[in-house]
Automatic annotation (TrEMBL):
Sequence ranges assigned to domain Cation-transporting P-type ATPase N-terminal in this UniProt record: 2-76
Name recorded for this polypeptide: P-type Ca(2+) transporter
Lineage: Bacteria, Bacillati, Bacillota, Bacilli, Bacillales
Localization (cell): Cell membrane
Organism: Peribacillus loiseleuriae
Entry keywords, A to Z: ATP-binding, Calcium, Calcium transport, Cell membrane, Ion transport, Magnesium, Membrane, Metal-binding, Nucleotide-binding, Phosphoprotein, Translocase, Transmembrane, Transmembrane helix, Transport
Transmembrane residue ranges: 48-71, 77-96, 244-262, 268-294, 692-714, 720-741, 769-788, 794-812, 833-853, 868-888
């Protein structure tokens, strides 16, 4: 017999489980050992050896290997071996850096791994979905990704989207009854839910009937294997730049070699010069350092509670000019407490704080017993009936398990002495139409102890009132007149103006035998009972984050399903809504064309009473106005807007799997302030990359200048290829890396966002590279000429001086790269990694010069003490000159 044909009891027997208690942990272990983890096997990963060899397929390395080969053939063994050694060192460095980057991205994937809710030993808990086994009972709700193949045993308005398996994007309605007929395809399996598919509506529970590679998804897993490596726009631009540099290098090589040969120089020297120039022109270490800087930046973001799911987002974050954020839970604490209750023209205040179920009801100054007023009592009872939340004690504090809005209603009922256990003796829930943020309501069909049925509806008051035709007034039901509606509206606005979130409750008696087909039928012709108003205090850190974002040229927009007045009150408290900025409501938004919205959108600070579907329109309007938009979301219906936004952000705690999968960034703490921190980090990562691009390229320009001018002046080569290689691959790498770890400049969040299309050399970077490069080149050349002219017989000594001057000039210049403005604009020694890196590079240089076994390899001889003055003096000139011009400009 197949699972689809069995009833619940048969499934329990077949899988030796209990629908009421779940599996026992001991049994789970046994099953895990038997069948393994519930995961799809991944395709072959790139092995360490392959990754190591991948370091050598670079064009530059091929040029070098060819040079080695020719040196070898010509009998220049020392050169050949030295080049190979340097290539190997570089290969190892690249390998370890990439391994590290890969590992941290891998760890990131684990953090974003899906979880499921499982019943074990009679208790519901959350576990990583890989730990689920056959026979486990799982609970799922709208927005969840199904964690294993399940036979559904309970379902409420359940719909699942199975396009991952069937290609069909229309969700399938799912049932929990046994099916005793043949089905033709997976799409017809209406009482099974499959691993990897998405719950788009309703909720349910199911028994795991297949895990891992045995699931329907596992059977087609081979087809799904695609390991795409993500690269960021900057990395793409650098790849293009790399190609341009290679062609430039080739061109220079050909010119130099041809001229040299025509001038009658010896072939091998000319060949080596050509190779040296090619090596000098190409920043070999750059791509690896960019990868590492990105992955380290991603790790820093995790510490600030933001998980990057798509690497390009790291860069885009720095360009964000608008943050569209939810209110509830992101800007506010999502800890709700009912403080006011309204029914039939009367308002009661409720005392107590947080979720502590102790408090009293007051009519003005007078304490009242809630049971004394029938409407009040009914309002509280119905708030508890149409409710899923539970109150639990954690670390001796009351916390809500479930929706905080419902938690607040549960607590207000408890303050009146009502508990779920006690009212469930009198009522049974027959059917439920779950809450969704488009409808903004939830309802249940209830049967009382006498068998009478009625519907209880709760939801956004302005929506609910439009579904009512009568109202409880002075504890009696009466026709809902215009006047009554005005009273209700006044009450709603009064509560909302105090920043309270309002929930209305209504009901409708059903005549015996009525069968309600859908929510539209349930939620009409209602009797309005009253309102409960709850506070949800703003998060303490959000106001400052909004202010700092504004200073950074980033506009904050609140998008909420809540009432306009409530949203307005909170947005004003947080400094989001100021001066002439506008509030637009969902209704108005619906009437606006895209053009109308674009005309005003930059002046809007709050969108209230909107549906998730409206978010897409808002994102597009901002994008059409040229903005880079970050948009938050948590529900299934938020996914399209999250995908369309330049930076889609999902909530880590309240977010559904669907929202998380559509996002490029997940906020671990659901906190608006973390978005600002992530943006600041994104800006810093990009600026740091610019810093070391500037450093490495200026160094390369310097090297080319030295070589090229020397050739033009018919001087011998100031640097031998092995020295250039040593500088480019070894001594430059560490300081560049340290720049990648630099702290942000003080004014980074006071600047306007960067334009996303700006090129690598924007904002004066190109000029800095060329001007600094030329200065470094000239300083090195002058040091070389001075020493060479004094003692033309000792070329090796002059070359050692040139080598030392070049390295020193770069190691001084690296401190200048820490600031966009000047070395004097910030404490040059503020980066301890950089100081460590510079000291290491200095030591490496000294080893190449003073360690006797290395001297023949690097073509060096020891430098006399007095000549160090020349070296250091010349090496400092470029940076000091620039600092001087900065001071002059500042004093002017
Ligand atoms: P945000 O979009 O900022 O998170 P929100 O939480 O108010 O704001 P929704 O969750 O879409 O947005 O809720 C919209 C409205 O629906 C709320 O203002 C409230 O009146 C009502 N509402 C919220 N939760 C429930 C619920 N569990 N049952 C019934 N009505 C609810």
């Amino acid at each position: 017999m197949k699972f689809r044909e069995m009833d619940t009891q048969q499934i329990e027997t077949a899988l030796e489980t209990s629908v009421r208690l779940g599996l026992k942990e001991a049994e789970v272990n046994k099953r895990q050992q038997l069948k393994g983890y519930n995961e799809l096997q991944e395709g072959e990963k790139q092995s360490a050896i392959l990754l190591f060899f991948a370091q050598f397929k670079d064009f530059m390395v091929i040029v070098l290997l060819a040079a080695t080969l020719i040196s070898g053939i010509l009998g220049e063994y020392i050169d050949a071996i030295a080049i190979i050694a340097i290539i190997l060192v570089n290969g190892f460095l690249g390998f370890f850096q990439e391994r590290k980057a890969e590992k941290s991205l891998e760890a990131l994937k684990q953090m974003a791994a899906p979880q499921v809710q499982v019943l074990r030993d009679g208790e519901w808990k959350r576990i990583p979905s890989r730990e689920a086994v056959m026979g486990d009972i799982l609970k799922f709700t709208s927005g969840d990704r199904i964690g294993a193949d399940l036979r559904i045993i309970e379902s409420a308005s359940l719909e699942i989207e199975e396009s991952a398996l069937t290609g069909e994007s229309v969700p399938v309605a799912k049932l929990n009854e046994a099916i005793r007929y043949d089905v033709e395809s997976i799409g017809d399996e209406v009482n099974l839910a499959f691993m990897g598919t998405m719950v788009t509506r309703g909720s349910g529970t199911g028994v795991v009937v297949a895990t891992g590679m045995e699931t329907a998804m596992g059977k087609i897993a081979d087809l799904l294997q695609s390991t795409e490596t993500q690269i960021t726009p900057l990395q793409r631009r650098l790849e293009q730049l790399g190609k341009i540099l290679i062609f430039t290098a080739l061109f220079l090589t050909i010119v130099v070699v041809a001229t040299g040969i025509l001038q009658g120089n010896d072939l091998y020297t000319m060949f080596l010069s050509g190779v040296s120039l090619a090596v000098a022109a190409i920043p070999e270490g750059l791509p690896a350092i960019v990868t590492v800087a990105l992955s380290l930046g991603v790790q820093r973001m995790i510490r600030k509670n933001a998980i990057v799911r798509k690497l390009p987002a790291v860069e885009t974050l720095g360009c964000a000019s608008v943050i569209c954020s939810d209110k509830t839970g992101t800007m506010t604490q999502n800890k709700m407490t009912v403080t006011h209750v309204w029914s039939g023209g009367k308002t009661w205040n409720v005392s107590g704080t947080g979720y502590q179920p102790d408090g009293e009801f007051y009519d003005g100054e007078k304490k009242v017993a809630p049971k004394s007023d029938k409407s009040l009592h009914q309002l509280l009872t119905f708030g508890l009936l149409c409710n899923h939340a539970d109150l639990v004690v954690k670390d001796s504090k009351y916390v809500v398990d479930g929706d905080p809005t419902e938690g607040a209603l549960l607590v207000s009922a408890m303050k009146a002495g009502l508990t779920r256990e006690s009212i469930m003796n009198n009522f049974t829930i027959v059917k439920e139409f779950p809450f969704d943020s488009t409808r903004k309501m939830m309802s249940v069909v209830v049967k009382d102890e006498n068998g009478k049925q009625f519907v209880v509806v709760k939801g956004a008051p302005d929506v609910l009132i439009s579904r009512c035709d009568s109202i409880l007034w002075s504890q009696k039901s009466q026709f809902l007149s215009k006047e009554n509606i005005n009273h209700v509206q006044e009450a709603i606005n009064g509560l909302a103006r105090q920043a309270l979130r309002t929930i209305a409750i209504g009901f409708k008696p059903l005549s015996p035998g009525t069968i309600l087909l859908d929510e539209a039928e349930a939620e009409r012709n209602l009797v309005f009972i009253g309102l409960q108003g709850m506070i949800d205090p703003p998060r303490a850190e959000v106001g400052l984050a909004v202010k700092e974002s504004r200073e950074a040229g980033i506009k904050t927009v609140m998008i909420t399903g809540d009432h306009a007045q409530t949203a307005k009150a909170i947005a004003s408290q947080l400094g989001i809504l100021r001066g002439k900025e506008k509030v637009i409501e969902g209704k108005q938004l619906a009437e606006m064309s895209m053009g109308d919205l674009e005309d005003v959108v930059e002046d809007v600070a709050v969108f209230a009473r909107v549906s998730p579907e409206d978010k897409l329109k808002i994102v597009k309007a901002f994008q059409n106005k040229g903005h880079i938009v970050a948009m938050t979301g948590d529900g299934v219906n938020d996914a399209p807007a999250i995908k369309t936004a330049d930076i889609g952000i999902a909530m880590g705690i309240t977010g559904t799997d669907v929202a998380k999968e559509a996002s490029s960034l997940i906020l671990l703490d659901d906190n608006f302030a973390s978005i600002k921190s992530a943006i600041a980090e994104g800006r810093n990562i990009y600026e740091n990359i610019r810093k070391f691009i500037r450093y490495l390229l200026a160094s390369n320009v310097g090297e080319i200048m030295v070589m090229f001018f020397a050739m033009l002046m018919a001087l011998p080569l100031p640097l031998v290829p092995i020295q250039i290689l040593w500088v480019n691959l070894v001594t430059d790498g560490l300081p560049a890396m340290a720049l990648g770890l630099d702290k942000a400049e003080g004014d980074l969040m006071k600047r306007k966002p960067r334009h996303p299309n700006e090129g690598v050399f924007a904002r004066g970077l190109g000029w800095k590279v060329i001007s600094r490069g030329i200065l470094i080149g000239l300083a090195t050349l002058i040091a070389f000429i001075v020493v060479y002219k004094n003692n033309p017989d000792n070329l090796v000594y002059a070359q050692t001086i040139a080598f030392a001057t070049l390295v020193m000039a770069q190691l001084i210049h690296v401190f200048d790269c820490r600031s966009e403005k000047s070395i004097l604009a910030r404490n040059p020694f503020g980066n301890k990694y950089l100081i460590g890196a510079v000291i290491s590079s200095l030591l490496l240089m000294l080893i190449a010069i003073y360690y006797p076994p290395f001297q023949p390899i690097f073509h060096t001889v020891p430098i006399a003490m007095r000549d160090w003055l020349l070296v250091i003096g010349m090496a400092s000139i470029p940076t000091f000159l620039l600092a001087g011009t900065f001071l002059v400009r500042k004093t002017k």
